[in-house]
Each structure stands twice: as structure tokens, then as C-alpha cells.
Amino acid sequence: MTIALRSFAGALALSAIFLTGTALDSGRAEAADMVVYNGGDVTSLDPHKLSGDWEDRVAGDIYEGLMTEDPKAKPVAGQAESHEISDDGLTYTFHLREDARWSDGEPVTAEDFVYAFRRLQAPKTAAQYAYLQYPIKNAEAINTGKIEDLSQLGVRAIDDKTLEITLERPTPYFLGALTHYTAYPVPKHLIETNPDDWVQIGTIVTNGPYKPVEWVPGSHVLTAKNEEWYGVDDLQIDGVRFLSMEDNSAGFKRYRAGEIDWMTDFPKDQFAFIEENLPGQAHVVPFAGLYYYVFNTSKPPFDNADVRKALSMAVNRQVIGPQVLGTGEPPAYGWVPPGMANYPEDGARVEWADMPYGERVEEAKTLLSEAGYGPDNPLNVVLRYNTNENHKRAAVAVAAMWKPLGVNVELNNAEVKVHYADLRAGDFETARAGWLADYNDPINFLDLLKSGVEMNYGRWSNETYNKLLDQASSMQDLEERGKVLKEAEQIALDDSAALPIYYYLSENIVSPKVKGFEDNVFDKHRTRYMSLEE
Amino acid sequence: MTIDLPPCGGDAGRQRGVLAGANVSSCGTLRRYPRRHRKHPMLRYATFRLLSTIPVLLIAITACFFILRLAPGGPFDQERALPPAVLANLRAYYHLDDTLIVQYLRYLGRLAQFDLGPSFTTKDFTVAQQIAIGLPYTLIVGGSAFLLAMVAGVISGVCGALYQNRWADYGIAAVVITGLVVPNFLVAPILQLIFGVKLDWLPVGGWGDGSLPYLIMPVIVLALPHIARISRLMRGSMIETLNANFIKTATAKGIGRRRTVIGHALRPALTPVVSYLGPAAGYLLTGSIVVEQIFGIPGIGRYFINAALNRDYGMVLGTVIFYMVLIVVLNLLVDLAYAWLDPKVRTR
Fold this sequence. Notes:
Chain A has 534 residues and is an alpha+beta fold. Chain A has three domains: 1-60 and 208-261 and 511-534, D-Maltodextrin-Binding Protein, domain 2 (3-Layer(aba) Sandwich); 64-198, Alpha-Beta Complex (Dipeptide-binding Protein, domain 1); 286-506, Dipeptide-binding Protein, Domain 3 (Dipeptide-binding Protein, domain 3, Roll), CATH 3.10.105. Chain A is 30% helix and 20% strand. The N and C termini of chain A lie far apart (57 Å). Chain B has 348 residues and is an all-alpha fold. Chain B has 17 helices and no strands. In chain B, α4 (41-70) packs antiparallel against α16 (313-341) and α7 (127-162) runs antiparallel to α13 (271-285). The two termini of chain B are 24 Å apart.
């Protein structure tokens, strides 16, 4: 009668013993390593095959370009200890460090860089981010197949340790672009002998402060000190375990349990909890990025600048960051995020930025009625966004703000691939979009509104704007260039080319154990500047 | 030994037997083939079942291949649009610029050589490599959950049956049904919060060195709904069996309750449970995206959904093929287990 019950109880007791017995040695094995919640899985360890910021965190630790970032993400000397720029701003000469070596002890040579830049642009490499190095002479022509001879690329080795790069036109942000992973060298000696598998753990060699030693897709990439790196003696952290995790709530629990030292993202709805219970650990600071809505200006009624202006004026940006999203994203009244280099500090703003919100709504109503819309003839708008809780919150709020103007909004969401495919095809009325800076220069954002650019989803086109951008591209005087760019930005804002909503914030939480983590607008934090204290 | 040998010889006979295996159950067909095959009808049956999946697999691959391409958006659509030239380079690199039929034939050609092709999202590993890397994790977690579900489900079900409609029965029902109705994306964070964050007994997540502490929570979360289903099936089937005449006979003969239940009732009562084990094993061994994401386990559960979202065509097809083969094999094992458990099936 009781045997079944007894064995059931026995099984329970046994598992209880198991549980408590093993709980004792659940210690964390990798105490000397920093554990980072890194978002998605890394696509590759080949710097020419990357496209995400989570990949940059790994690649930036294991490779180093001619230039690299300081703790504030400013470009500083990396593999090149010095450089000269010709007076016309077209020729850069870099002198590599004598002690620059790959992790197998081979020297890093100028030829490695020549090889890497050619490989990046070669069409058969199919590098997604090749266009970031288009300022280099003939890069675009090679990448698009117009020139087949790779040696036409404006990069050449003068000797083993001297590299010369020639540009298409003066590019004030070029040194910054050289810190990007598209400008990392790759080990020519290894790729030529082992083109398919050179990137596998055990084979790969890198030239950065760390080298990858373990990679389990879906779990983590583990790095360890690269003993050949010139500054290895100063490295405080032995290695980093970059966790591939996309569930930030689960990640946050692991952070609270001390299993994670740094999270590169956290659940927004936990922000208040973190501020209260883990004071000082949330690093929420401006990030060089813009969140905006784009109007399809090739379709009525969005070809009418007054309609666009009315919709833009009616969006109360002050409440979106602090109240709708809860993390306090700063309102965007301009196109270029604050703090960009080579740009006047007081960038352009929409002229109605300081108008009280009530007046703005009234003026928006007037503009719409002049355009023929009103209570009798309501404006119907389909607003699209890619499926995401935060985009949804913002879209619902914006729809509610447009409602008093007599605008009927239909919200329509799609997963991210579909969303952007439709945006590219021009198959939308208004849609959510965003842009994070690739390099520290306003042109990065202003290009989004240039005619004929792929990312100009709204097809907004203005001749003067295009001319000003072209004019700026050949200017050497950075101050004058900044003024011209600001003039262009003002044109776009006055014409309500698109609807800037807020500037992004970077959202890290960092354990008090981690020292040397410095906030910066590019959200780049290299492990070599950090240390762990127990 | 070869009295009934068909004219074309043993090997051909075996082949025909396999292909014409739909008639396996008909004695008339069986008699025409060599006796050694008659001795192993299960083996023949298994071979037939495995081979008959090939056309099914082909149809599924074809459907999957074309349906995937109908989905809007492509693998390289993303927040940052790529310049047309770069996009063209990428499409050429992965042969996506060929016509669909050419791509389809190329895929089949590769598949015939057991090559599942490249993945667009994890470029350093092929689809086959990724499945090979993720599979052990899924097998360990899923297999442990399967064992736990089976043991706990059967024991609690038998208990429920023996104490039918008494407090123990209701208590067990309440516990296991709770495990069934509370979804795993809720159970998992609660367990993490209690045992990982508050009590600090277990690691909140990750694989660590793969030791038991890392396994406990994911295995329990995965097993919970199956414990409930197995327990309910077992209870019902056990109650039915205990009322059967042969059990009454056994009881009348004075065999103890313990021997009656374990020696006589358990095996026949397991039959409905076994029919559930096939799908359950299929579910557990293909991994769970929820459990893997929440506990940070690098298994194969997330591949399918992530690959579909990323339009990683090769990865989607690879996982579909893998799942199909796995499920076919598991169903086969269930059928064989049936034969072992139920003499009626065996003699048929």
C-alpha cells in the first residue's frame, strides 16, 4: 500500500540531498576573468565579417588598428606609433611600432595592413561594412567592381613598418575611421596558407591585447591575454568572458547574483529598481545616435512640408524619454546628436523648439487645415515600427499626440527584417528608424538625408542641401566646414525632412568591482583600460 | 534455408522487401522473402520506416525552401541598409543571385553529400558544425529532463492511482497541474530569483563546467509540464489496470499488493505513457528556446526560431531536417518499445 508513496518520498529526499550537497561547490570558476553580458552571438572573429556593436566589443579587444580608442573613445595611436598627414589632407603616412606582433610572435607589417584593406574591399569578401573605408582612394570603385585590380587601392607599404594611405578627398574623421574594425589588420601569413579555417579557435592569431581562446556559439567567447602584445604587462584583467545572451531580464538576475560584471543593456522597466537598490551602477549617458520617424516624401500628403511640420510639432518630445520610456532619453530638436566632433557646439535646431507645447499644437492644427485636413477630412496615417516593446510605447504615445490634430493613426508593426526591407522599397507612409554613429563626424548623420543614399528611406530631396554637403566634403578648414554642414542641417530641419524624436542613451550597468569604466558618447569601453577589484 | 527465395536473388529480394514494405503486416507478402528476414521482422520494419522518411523529408525540404523565400525581407535587411554594391557582393558570395531553382538544386546536391551549407549569421561555423556544437548541451539538459519527467511522472501517477480520491492523490494532482499550467517563462525567472539571487544556492544561469548545479533549474523547468502529463496518464491507466480481471485474480491468489502493482500492473499500465514519450522526447531533445535563453544554455533550441527571424535559410532547413530525422527515429523507438511492453502488439 505504501510502497509507491515511500519510493516517491525517497526520490524527493534523494534529490534534496543532491541539491544541497552540490549547492556548496557552485563557486564561479573563472574568478580572474571579467564576465560581460554582450547581447547577441558574435557573427565571426574575422573583422571583415562583422556588423554589430556587440561584435565590436570582442573584435576591439583582440585586434588593434593603426589607431585605437582611449578610455573616452577618442582616437589615439595604436599599432602605428606616429603618423604624418600631408598638407592637402590626402596622404597619411603611418609608422608602425617596432614591437607590434601577432599572437604567434610574427611581426605585424605594413603589408598586413595593405592585405587587410584590399581584402576588405574585394567584392568576393562580401564585407558588410566595407563602405566605412570608402574615403580611401579607389576603395568604392574596387568594392563595386568598377576596378578589378586590387593594387589600385590607395594603400601601400613603403617598407615593413611604413604604410601610406591616399584618400579620395580630405576626410577630417579619417583617423577616427581607422579605429573601426574595418581597419584592423588581418594576418596575411596565416590567411594565405589557411584561407578557410584561419579564424577557428586554435588557429587564429590576433594583434590586440587579448586573443580568443574559446568560443561556444550561443554561450560565450572567452579571451585571454595576448603575451605578444606590446602593452601586455599593464593589462589588469586576465581575460573576458563575453556572454552571448539576448534575454536581458535573465541577464540582470545573473548580474544581481554576481555572475556578471558588466551588462551592455538592461531591462528598461528595471531602471527605477536599479537606481534605488544598486545606486551608481547604471551608466545611462548620451550616445551618438538618433531615434526618428521618417516620412515617405514621395507619397502625398507627406510631399507637403507643412503636413510634415505639423506632425513634427505635435510630438511632445519632453515626455517620451522620461515618461514613456522611463530612462530619460534627451529630446531631439536637431538632426545631429550633441557632442559630435568637427561641428559647432550649438548645432541647428527646429525654429519652434522653444515654443510652448500648447502653442505648437495650435499652429500644427492651422498648418493641417491649410493643407486641407481637419475634422471633416481627417488625415489618415499608417505608422510602422519594427516589433519591439519600446518602439511600440513610443508609437502609441506619438499616435495619441497626433490625435488632437484630427489625425487617425493606424499602428503597424513587423519584425525587423521585414520592416527595413519595406523601408528600402519605399513601402510605407511614416515609419520608425534609428541611426547610431559609425564615426565621430556630423556627416555620418547628414548623409542620411542626402539624395540617392540608400538609407534615405523617405526620399527627401533638396538640391541646396546636397550641394552644401558636396561643398563641405572638399573643405579642409574644419570650422568653416562645420558651419556649412550646420547650414545644411538647418535646411533639412526647416523643411521637416524627417521627425527627430530623441537621442539615444547608452545603457550599461557596471559592477562596483569594475574600475576604469569611463562613460563616453560612443559607448566604447576597451578591457585594456579596466581592472577588477574584489 | 532459401526455399522461398524469389527468382532475382537475396539482395534484390531484400530491397524489394524494403520498398514493398507496406505489406509487412500481411503474411502473404512475408512468405515470399527469405526466412532470415522473417526472423527479424522488427529490423525490416525499422529499416523500412527509416527509408520511407526520405520522400517525406524531400517534400518537407522543398516546401520549407520555397516558403522561406516567400517571406518578406532577406538575410541582409537590417537597421543599417547596405549600399547596393555591398549587398550585391553578399548575395553573390552566398549564391543568392542565382534563380531560385538553381539555388534549390544546388542545395539538394549539397545535401546529398551530407553538407547542410553555410550559416549567414554565425559565419565561422557551418550549419552542421553548429548543430554538432549545440546538440550535446540539448541532449544533456533534454535527456535529464526526460528521465526526471518519466521517473517523477510515473511514481506520482502510481501514487495517485493507489490513493485514488484521497488527500495524497489531490495533493499530487495540485502540485503537478501547477507545474503544467504555469508557463516555463514564468517558472524559470521565479526559480532563478529564489534559488539564484535570494538564496544563492544555485548559479542563476550559464553552463559553467556543466556540473549538476548548472543543470538543476533548467532540467526542472523543462520537465515540469511533462511530469504533469505523464503523471495524469499514469494515474488513469493504473486505475484502469488495477480494476482488470487479471489483477483481481492476482489479488485473489494472495499475491501481495506490492508484487501485484510492480510485477503485474505496472507494465501494462505503462502503455499509454509510452505513446506519450515519443512526442515528449521529440520536444525535449529539440531544445527549448525559452529555457535556453533564460538559462543561457548554448543548445540547439534557439537555432530554429532565431534562424527564421534572421532569414538564415540554410540554418532553418538544417534544423528542419535534423528535427524530422530525430522525430522519425523517436517514433520508431516508441513503436519498438510498444512491442516490448504489449504482447498483443508483438504477436501481430
